[in-house]
Amino acid sequence: MGPGLKEEQTKRGSKCFKLNFVFFLLNISSFFVPVTGYVLRSCHISYSTAICSKRRLTAVPQDIPSTVKGLDLYGNKISKIQVSDFKKLSNLTELNLKWNIISEIDTGSFTNLNSLKMLNLNDNKLTGLGDNVFDGLGSLTHLRMNRNQIKTVASTSFKSLTNLMVLDISVNKLYRITNVHTILQHLPNLLELSVANNNLTSFQSWELTNSSLKLGQLDLSQNPIGDFRITADVFPNLTWLNTGGSSKRHHMKWDVRNKTFLRRVSTFDISGLQIPSEDMKTILGTFNSSLTTVKMNDMKRTYLRALINISCSIPTVSSLQLRSNNLFFMSSNLLSLCFKVTELDLADNSMKNIKDDAFKHLQGIKVLALNHNRLSSVPAAIRNLPALEELDLSKNNITTLGCQDFANLTKLRQLSLHQNSISALQGCVFKDLIHLEVLKLQNNSISKLNDAFIKYLPNLRQLHLNSNKLTAIKHGEFRGLRSLQNLSLHDNQITVLEKECFTGLRNLMAIQLQMNHIKRHKDYKDSFRDLINLKRLDLSHNSIKYIESSALPDPPFSHLSNLERLAFTGNHRRVKSQLPCNFLQGLTNLLDFTGRNLQLLSLHKDTFNHTPKLQKLDISSNELMDLSSELFYPIRNLKSLYISRINLGSLDFFKDANLTKLEFLQARRNQFSVFSEEVLESMPALAYLDLQGNSFTCDCDNAWFLKWTENNQQTQVSDAYNFVCNYPPHLKGMKLLKLDVRSCTVDTEFICFISTTCTILVFMVASFTYHFLRWYLAYAYYIFLAFLFDTKHKNKQAPNQYDAFISYNTHDEPWVIRQLLPKLEGEQGWRLCLHHRDFEPGKPIIDNITDAIYGSRKTICVISHRYLESEWCSREIQVASFRLFDEQKDVLILVFLEDIPTTQLSPYYRMRKLLKRQTYLSWPRASEHPELFWEKLRQAMKTREDLGEDELNLTVTDKP
């Protein structure tokens, strides 16, 4: 039993006992259905992937469900992979072991991973690959072992990887190409190989002649290769080759005997090479007519012009990448031979000036990248590029845009101007960009649009204006963008959206307005009327608030019937608010609503009446404290619900909410302490449950939850092993799943056995006793009761209060009042006790009867048929007979008001016994001599109470 649990169980006795039968069913099910649990100690499941990254794990967790298809162990402290680590994960297709300290992999560790396709071992401590280390990975297509310390590779290491297509073994210590050959000889389907930065000093094709390669991409960059020799056709399918430079290499001898050996290479990267132009001419002359792209980044400036000329002299070259070459300015001479180039990348060159005629020879250029330079304005040189389709001027120092900056660029489709210092736009700046589809202006200082989007850009589909300084969107400011589909206005300073400011944008599908300064309903209520095809609207992190939940006369989204996602979170603190009950009116197709951090005090039960298709609801970080089940009645299709940090004291509202399709529930950091079984039963489709940060009660109230958490196979309970107890105080801080709940369960089979056995024995004993000993027991019972009454009254020394207690039935009361009472009290002077007159009010009847009988010298029983049938009269004569048996005194007088034959007395066992021992008076037979009857009764009242001494014959007639 867990510490303190017994004490708590005593307090809740009956409540805990009610749970026993529930746990019996759970225990029975565990006997017949082998389970491993679906709660993970160090991971969580997301879209069939077990995510265990950055958990400081030193070994692969063994509680991963066998059904997962992905396992992410990135950023842990695992040092060794063992045979048992992945034994149960036969369905795994992706395994990420990046950034651990793995130095050893046991042979056979991957044997059961027959479905694995992607394996990442980057950034570990592997120094060698042993025999058959990848045995079992016959389906693997991608293997990455970048940044290890691999020096040796066994001849059979890659033998099983017959379907491998991508191998990255860069930044290791292979040193020699023979080690690469050891790898390649078993990889007939390899398409991409990277052995960059492995200290390879030579590349000899004869070491690869036994390989039949399909290799399409080869990365040999950052190796100090002094001798690059290809004397055989070992790369018949190679299309991408990188032999980029290394700081350790000063000269590379290039020997490719036949141009046909590299006949399919289209992309050649020689970035960083430090070789004379003559040698470079020899290298580039090796390629056949397939070469289209040459990358010469970070080249020594003195050779750059010559290298560009050599590259551009190749007839098929159409793309040049010249990044990080410190080209502070551009002149026409640099690219004079590049008239066939269609793509030019000049990023990150610190350029400040570009001459107007710098691109005059590039009349056919379609893609131009000038980003990440120091340009202060749009270079005039681009105006002479009529074929230009993509222009990147981002990350420069451009402050203004003029009306002629993009003149003649009628074919431009994408323009990037983000991360500059542009403060305003002119109405004519984009006048010639009739085919522009994407315009990026984010991260500038734009405060005014100045009609820039009223007339022009008829084909613009994406407009990014986020992270600027816009304060208002005016009426019709975007009406010229009739093809616009995505508009980003987030992270500005917008306070007002004027009426119909988005007019004309009938094709707009998404608009981002988050992180602005909109505060009032009237500042945006009429803005969205024309957006009939809008599907996504984000108004989060503004300061919009409502004081009342009453219906709005003009709901802001009433025209957005196609909207699917609405985000309406707040950024105000300590400002309580409400949400109008018809706030979502018109959103008949809404699927996703987010209302986080609005400081809502409540939600009206009709809030979601207009959103019958809602599937995802997030109302976290509010002050709701309680939710009504009626709130969820209209949204029966809800699949994901986020109700974290809203101070919920209970989840009982789920019982009647009927959320039968709910799959995801996040209810972190609330105030409830018990998760009841009825709540879970109301969500039969639940697959993910997140209750982190709640204050759980560690007693039998949560016992079933613990069992269910560990044994269920449908619902994943996120981080359950870190749930802690908050009550009772002496268990505070203890892990909830460490609580011992065995005392909350019962062994029903044992109880059934004991109960059945005891029932049979009791039945047998009762049957035997009734048949053979019932009269003896009856006699013993009476003797025992007499003993009890004697014990109660024998020490009372007070004199009798009455001379006689009259025991009669209420139907015989007229005779007692008219005949008996006048004679005994009126004429003879006896003190009588009658129940209707002398019983103490408020006192239990049986106590009044007992006190009356023991407080009187005699008890007169007035017997009639009704007397015999009366239960209370039976009790009175019973107590009187007990006194008779106990005290052995003549204290009982029997008076028969009616003739009752002996045959009719046979059912009344007690009366028959008394008649055998006691004399009696008969009123019907005293009708001729009534005075004699009363005299006999007077004498009976005067007789001594000791039985057997001068007994007076009171019988008036024979016994019946």
Automatic annotation (TrEMBL):
<keyword id="KW-1133">Transmembrane helix</keyword>
<dbReference type="GO" id="GO:0038023">
    <property type="term" value="F:signaling receptor activity"/>
</dbReference>
<dbReference type="GO" id="GO:0045087">
    <property type="term" value="P:innate immune response"/>
</dbReference>
<feature type="domain" description="TIR">
    <location>
        <begin position="800"/>
        <end position="941"/>
    </location>
</feature>
<dbReference type="Pfam" id="PF00560">
    <property type="entry name" value="LRR_1"/>
</dbReference>
<keyword id="KW-0732">Signal</keyword>
<dbReference type="GO" id="GO:0006954">
    <property type="term" value="P:inflammatory response"/>
</dbReference>
<keyword id="KW-0433">Leucine-rich repeat</keyword>
<feature type="transmembrane region" description="Helical">
    <location>
        <begin position="760"/>
        <end position="789"/>
    </location>
</feature>
<dbReference type="InterPro" id="IPR000483">
    <property type="entry name" value="Cys-rich_flank_reg_C"/>
</dbReference>
<dbReference type="InterPro" id="IPR003591">
    <property type="entry name" value="Leu-rich_rpt_typical-subtyp"/>
</dbReference>
<keyword id="KW-0812">Transmembrane</keyword>
<keyword id="KW-0391">Immunity</keyword>
<keyword id="KW-0472">Membrane</keyword>
<dbReference type="GO" id="GO:0002224">
    <property type="term" value="P:toll-like receptor signaling pathway"/>
</dbReference>
<keyword id="KW-0675">Receptor</keyword>
<dbReference type="Pfam" id="PF13855">
    <property type="entry name" value="LRR_8"/>
</dbReference>
<dbReference type="InterPro" id="IPR035897">
    <property type="entry name" value="Toll_tir_struct_dom_sf"/>
</dbReference>
<keyword id="KW-0325">Glycoprotein</keyword>
<feature type="transmembrane region" description="Helical">
    <location>
        <begin position="21"/>
        <end position="40"/>
    </location>
</feature>
<protein>
    <submittedName>
        <fullName>Toll-like receptor 22</fullName>
    </submittedName>
</protein>
<dbReference type="InterPro" id="IPR032675">
    <property type="entry name" value="LRR_dom_sf"/>
</dbReference>
<comment type="similarity">
    <text>Belongs to the Toll-like receptor family.</text>
</comment>
<dbReference type="InterPro" id="IPR001611">
    <property type="entry name" value="Leu-rich_rpt"/>
</dbReference>
<dbReference type="InterPro" id="IPR000157">
    <property type="entry name" value="TIR_dom"/>
</dbReference>
<keyword id="KW-0399">Innate immunity</keyword>
<dbReference type="GO" id="GO:0005886">
    <property type="term" value="C:plasma membrane"/>
</dbReference>
<dbReference type="Pfam" id="PF01582">
    <property type="entry name" value="TIR"/>
</dbReference>
<keyword id="KW-0677">Repeat</keyword>
<keyword id="KW-0395">Inflammatory response</keyword>
